[in-house]
């Protein structure tokens, strides 16, 4: 108190501290007046803020009491509009700019963190694509997120929506760059270098050394691998192909459930929310696309190696083993141990799937 008194007696000596002290004293006085005032009066809007919270934890009694005194219906209007936009005519009495600012801040840390995660995941997927081209299938995750974000724009643009669209766009470009950049480097080397004669693939509409090499040196192409001599390789790949297809269909059939509720029939014991289901569904689609491309246009036995990059079939095996009643699920782990040992021996002898 002596320090505060000294600041007030000689405010010019410490103007900023004096103003800060006066501000705190004044606001404390107003808060005391509000706390001691009779109420709640005719405006009971503050009671809406005291609904049970989603994580079953109530605010302290003192804080709830103060909130009741300080919260008024115009504040609730501003907050509600900022979260879901303008819905009713009377809401347009509340300033558009202020609601947009609130929306930006209320969507702040969690949304910004999620947007950053999307961008980082796109960069990681792009790096993975430079390792092996099937990594580009991970871009389906970001593609659907971009489509859903564009669809939300029908309700009007917001800072959070635009930021999400930018994150998915940059993430998707990163995935694509993982495939395009190596092709561009090869194009500069073979098509724009000092060679007297450019390679034939340089004249293509979309020149790609990768597609040319797969076609020219590995004889990859639509149904080219479907020969009688390759039948043993299809048999070798068949178990993992069956598991990939079965797990993808399982993932596409999983429905979101309310936390704490018993699993729905056919859910394989998976407790999943809507957001997680979207990711699971996208990964399942990527898995099915991989199966389609591998069985029709590639050396089919490579599926036994590249399938390790797709987690859905592992989740399916885990969920089926826990629930039981599924012949594939119950014997999944046992079979995969034997299957992996056989493949390990073949690989070490430079036999397929090597």
UniProtKB/TrEMBL annotation:
Ranges annotated as spanning the membrane: 233-252, 332-351
GO cellular component entries: endoplasmic reticulum membrane; mannosyltransferase complex
Swiss-Prot/TrEMBL keywords: Endoplasmic reticulum, Glycosyltransferase, GPI-anchor biosynthesis, Membrane, Signal, Transferase, Transmembrane, Transmembrane helix
Pfam families: Mannosyl_trans2 (PF04188)
GO terms, biological process: GPI anchor biosynthetic process
Molecular function GO terms recorded: alpha-1,6-mannosyltransferase activity; GPI mannosyltransferase activity
Database matches in InterPro entries: PIG-V/Gpi18
Record membrane topology: Multi-pass membrane protein
Signal peptide range: 1-35
KW GTP-binding (keyword) present: no
First-listed, main subcellular location of the protein, grouped into a coarse class: endoplasmic reticulum
Pathway terms, separated by semicolons: Glycolipid biosynthesis; glycosylphosphatidylinositol-anchor biosynthesis
UniProt-listed Enzyme Commission number(s): 2.4.1.-
Subcellular localization, as worded in the UniProt entry: Endoplasmic reticulum membrane
Keyword match Glycosyltransferase: yes
Record function comment: Mannosyltransferase involved in glycosylphosphatidylinositol-anchor biosynthesis.
Family: Belongs to the PIGV family.
Record-given protein name: GPI mannosyltransferase 2
Organism whose genome encodes this protein: Marssonina brunnea f. sp. multigermtubi (strain MB_m1) (Marssonina leaf spot fungus)
């Amino acid at each position: 108190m002596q320090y505060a008194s000294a600041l007030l007696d000689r405010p010019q000596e410490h103007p900023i501290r004096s103003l800060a002290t006066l501000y705190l004293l004044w606001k404390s006085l107003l808060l005391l007046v509000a706390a001691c005032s009779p109420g709640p009066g005719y405006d009971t809007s503050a009671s809406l803020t005291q609904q049970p919270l989603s994580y079953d934890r109530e605010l302290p009694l003192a804080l709830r009491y103060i909130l009741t005194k300080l919260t008024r219906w115009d504040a609730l209007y501003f907050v509600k509009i900022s979260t879901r936009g303008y819905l009713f005519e009377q809401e347009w009495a509340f300033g558009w700019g202020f609601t947009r600012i609130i929306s930006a801040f209320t969507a702040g840390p969690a949304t910004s963190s999620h947007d950053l995660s999307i961008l980082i995941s796109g960069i990681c997927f792009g790096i993975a694509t430079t390792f092996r081209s099937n990594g580009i299938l991970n871009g389906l995750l970001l593609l659907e997120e971009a489509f859903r974000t564009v669809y939300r724009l029908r309700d009007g643009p917001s800072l959070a929506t635009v930021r999400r669209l930018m994150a998915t766009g940059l993430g998707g470009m990163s995935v694509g760059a993982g495939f395009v950049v190596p092709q561009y480097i090869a194009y500069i080397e073979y098509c724009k270098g000092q060679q007297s004669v450019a390679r034939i693939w340089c004249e293509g509409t979309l020149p790609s050394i990768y597609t040319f090499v797969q076609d020219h040196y590995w004889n990859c192409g639509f149904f080219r691998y479907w020969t009688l001599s390759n039948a043993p390789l299809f048999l070798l790949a068949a178990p993992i192909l069956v598991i990939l297809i079965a797990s993808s269909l399982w993932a596409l059939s999983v429905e979101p459930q309310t936390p704490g509720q018993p699993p729905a029939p056919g859910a394989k014991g998976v407790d999943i929310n809507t957001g997680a289901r979207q990711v699971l569904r996208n990964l399942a689609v990527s898995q099915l696309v991989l199966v389609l491309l591998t069985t029709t246009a590639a050396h089919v036995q490579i599926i036994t190696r590249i399938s390790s990059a797709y987690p859905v079939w592992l989740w399916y095996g885990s969920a089926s083993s826990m629930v039981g009643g599924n012949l594939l699920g119950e014997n999944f782990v046992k079979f995969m141990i034997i299957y992996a040992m056989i493949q390990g021996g073949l690989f070490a002898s430079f036999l397929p799937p090597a």
